[in-house]
Design a protein that fits this description.
This protein is of the alpha/beta class and 228 residues long. It is built from nine helices and seven strands; from the N terminus they run ααβαβαβαβββαβααα. Helix 1 packs parallel to helix 8 and helix 3 packs parallel to helix 7.
Length: 228
């Protein structure tokens, strides 16, 4: 079966990176998922914002959705450690309340909106049923937690058991614990959590572009050789 243009493009670009990096890309893409995604609503501390992104990348979460209402989302490069160049960040801004647009967009993509909060008694994180469909895990601000809009639009609520006087964990710690539990559930299940072959190919091509110094010049040479 003839290779598609996208397959040929990836192979062409990949010849300009080391074999070790090619092998790493082929390995890592197998662990990427869009079955589980993370939504960050109005996070304002750069250290927390960066730590959550780094955690998401480490657990193979490909997409993170960032809602900017009152606070602009900024990252600390010393904390994020380059993780953002391997992920897709989707920002929602421009309105006083961008949360409805973000959650409606995710619902349209088939996601269940699962909000993290210690205030609503639904289920603990280990009891969340991943077989009911894709999960968009929503986390709110460091002080106030999720907004009333998220409360109203969420399909389910989860919490982490706590046994001390303090009301909640730091958001980066919450993200790490939740993703550890949920990603393990996915990878030990028969659910279709991996990216499709087409998604993997597109992602691998993007990753090679991120490695190359001037990918646009290399890509131009490919299309020239293909007479495209």
């Amino acid at each position: 079966m003839p290779k598609t243009t996208e397959e040929q493009l990836y192979e062409y670009l990949a010849q300009f990176i080391t074999e070790n990096k090619r092998n790493k890309i082929e390995e890592i893409v197998q662990w990427r998922t869009r079955y589980l995604t993370v939504v960050l609503e109005d996070i304002y501390q750069p250290h927390n914002a960066s730590a959550v992104l780094r955690t998401c990348e480490c657990f193979g979460i490909q997409d993170v959705h960032i809602i900017e209402n009152r606070n602009k989302y900024t990252v600390n490069p010393d904390v994020v450690m380059g993780s953002t160049k391997w992920m897709n960040l989707h920002k929602y801004s421009g309105k006083l309340n961008n949360t409805p647009d973000a959650l409606n967009a995710l619902k349209a993509q088939g996601y269940r909106i699962v909000a993290t909060t210690p205030h609503k008694n639904d289920c603990i994180i280990t009891e969340l049923d991943m077989s009911k469909g894709k999960v968009a895990l929503v986390m709110g601000t460091e002080i106030d937690g999720i907004s009333q809009t998220v409360f109203d639009m969420a399909d389910e609520f989860v919490k982490i058991p706590m046994y001390g006087f303090t009301e909640s964990f730091n958001i980066s710690v919450t993200a790490a614990m939740c993703l550890h539990v949920l990603s393990n559930k996915l990878r030990s299940s028969d659910l279709p959590w991996q990216l499709s072959a087409e998604e993997q190919l597109l992602l691998k091509t993007d990753w090679v572009r991120n490695i190359l110094t001037k990918p646009e010049l290399v890509e131009a040479e490919f299309y020239k050789s293909m007479n495209l």
